[in-house]
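Structure (tokenized):
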């Protein structure tokens, strides 16, 4: 099962080129929230998408019928299909599917229509409210756009959603249920209700006066994550089909691990037990050992508890000695936390780095934390990454790890 196309809409750039250029430059996508006036909130910063025009990808009439998270997902799909050199409708639509992830779905539509209900009454609620709001609508709209009539599922495992979606898509192709799957995730949560909710949990950074330095995974002075938005999509194909059409192969997914902490609704299990087993299971699935891992793209949220537990999980999964040898970096240090879209966007970053021969940095890593003592790559670094792990951990204790091998190494 190989990846033949990728698309990304992120706070540091839309499209693969802009996204990668920003990452290697250490550019932050964090600033004061502009989607609404955040003055009343403890956290007034976020990583918003800044260069997205839905009309470049979607008909104007259809844009009005889609929540922003769906617009992001559909647009990123168009990018990924173009990158893969695939035109729709598919030659075999019943062997082509969509497995998509989101943590929250159409919360913007939900929030807006609640205001309509309270101010104008139930008769003024839009008939499009439910079709725009429900979490499976990005997958539904992508299938409608492409004609994909095969497996179609939405995964909602909070911040692990798009990583789980990719893992389940990988399994469907590996076990012969599909030949091509569009997979990834999307999130658009910059509404007062969502930001206020995360603020009430004390989960967000309050470094309002220094937004570009607010997301600082593994750093001693981290004080919470920075909310982000965007989408990432990958085209996953069965290897022989991809070869038959002469496709460029970005990478091969070779392993997938999926576990639960079974511990707490938001806090990670002590010592990162769930993340450790997720990595171990992924490496076992890929038939590799710790010595084969050249790089880890960490979940790395910039919260005190997550970064400490993930560090310990990496040590336990790889062994203390090997863990200190493997470079680890966090894309969230620049993009913020894209919630359900974070896993796929971070896998895109990982694969681009494998092809460019560069590991992007963990930005804002200025002050080492004794409890986070691995190699977090404070500056971009040349590296020959053949095999990489990518971690995604979600509220509810849901963990996912993907193992990818560089495309030129596919047998």
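Design, position by position:
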């Amino acid at each position: 099962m190989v990846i033949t196309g990728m698309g990304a809409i992120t706070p540091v750039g839309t499209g693969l080129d802009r996204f990668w250029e920003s990452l290697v430059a250490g550019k932050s996508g964090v600033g004061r929230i502009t989607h609404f006036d955040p003055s009343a909130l403890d956290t007034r910063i976020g990583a918003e998408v800044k260069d997205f025009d839905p009309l470049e990808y979607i008909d104007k009439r259809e844009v009005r019928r889609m929540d922003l998270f769906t617009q992001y997902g559909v647009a990123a799909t168009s990018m990924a299909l173009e990158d893969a050199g695939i035109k729709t409708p598919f030659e075999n639509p019943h062997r082509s599917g969509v497995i998509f992830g989101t943590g929250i779905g159409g919360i913007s539509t939900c929030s807006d229509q609640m205001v309509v209900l309270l101010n104008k009454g139930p008769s003024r609620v839009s008939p499009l409210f439910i079709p725009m709001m429900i979490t499976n609508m990005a997958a539904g709209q992508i299938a409608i756009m492409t004609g994909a009539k095969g497996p179609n599922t939405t995964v909602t495992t909070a911040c692990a959603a798009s990583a789980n979606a990719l893992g389940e898509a990988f399994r469907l192709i590996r076990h012969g249920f599909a030949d091509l799957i569009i997979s990834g995730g999307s999130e658009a949560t910059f509404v007062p209700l969502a930001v206020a909710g995360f603020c009430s949990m004390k989960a967000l950074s309050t470094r309002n006066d220094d937004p570009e330095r607010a997301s600082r995974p593994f750093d001693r002075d981290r004080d919470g994550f920075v909310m982000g938005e965007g989408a990432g999509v990958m085209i996953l194909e069965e290897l022989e089909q991809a070869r038959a059409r002469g496709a460029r192969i970005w990478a091969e997914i070779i392993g997938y691990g999926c576990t639960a902490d079974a511990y707490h609704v938001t806090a990670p299990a002590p010592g990162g037990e769930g993340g450790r087993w997720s990595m171990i299971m992924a490496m076992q699935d890929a038939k590799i050992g710790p010595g084969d891992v050249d790089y880890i793209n960490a979940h790395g949220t910039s919260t005190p508890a997550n970064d400490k537990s993930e560090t310990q999980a990496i040590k336990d999964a790889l062994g203390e000695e090997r863990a200190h040898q493997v470079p680890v970096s966090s894309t969230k240090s620049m993009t913020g936390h894209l919630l359900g879209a974070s896993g796929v966007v971070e896998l895109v970053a990982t694969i681009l780095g494998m092809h460019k021969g560069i590991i992007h940095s963990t930005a804002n890593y200025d002050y080492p934390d004794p409890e986070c003592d691995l190699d977090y790559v404070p500056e971009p670094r040349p590296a020959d990454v053949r095999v990489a792990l990518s971690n995604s951990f979600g509220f509810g204790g849901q963990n996912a790890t993907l193992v990818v091998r560089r495309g030129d190494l596919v047998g």
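Reviewer-requested clarification: The first strand starts at residue 2 and ends at 10. The chain is about 35% helix and 20% strand.
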